[in-house]
Amino acid sequence: MATQTVESNSRSGPRPTNVGSL
């Protein structure tokens, strides 16, 4: 799950929805 969050962050830009989980 953490991997998907990091990837989304790079794609989305600022931070995804699961950024708080990290």
In short:
This protein has 22 residues and is mainly α.
% residues in beta strands:
under 5%
Number of strands: 0
Series of H and E elements: H
Tally of separate helices? 1
Form type? globular
Mean pLDDT figure: 58
The portion of residues assigned to helices is 40-55%
- Structure classification: mainly alpha
Largest sheet: none
Radius of gyration: 7 Å
N-to-C span: 10 Å
* Low-confidence parts: none
Structure description:
This is Photosystem II phosphoprotein. This protein has 22 residues and is mainly α. 50% of the residues lie in helices and 0% in strands. It has 1 helix and no strands. The protein is globular, with a radius of gyration of 7 Å. The mean pLDDT is 58.
What's the layout of helices and strands?
Blueprint: H1 2-12
Protein name: Photosystem II phosphoprotein
Keywords: Chloroplast, Plastid
Region (Disordered): 1-22
Which features would summarize this protein structure in a list?
1 helix, Photosystem II phosphoprotein, 22 residues, plastid, single chain, mainly alpha, globular, chloroplast
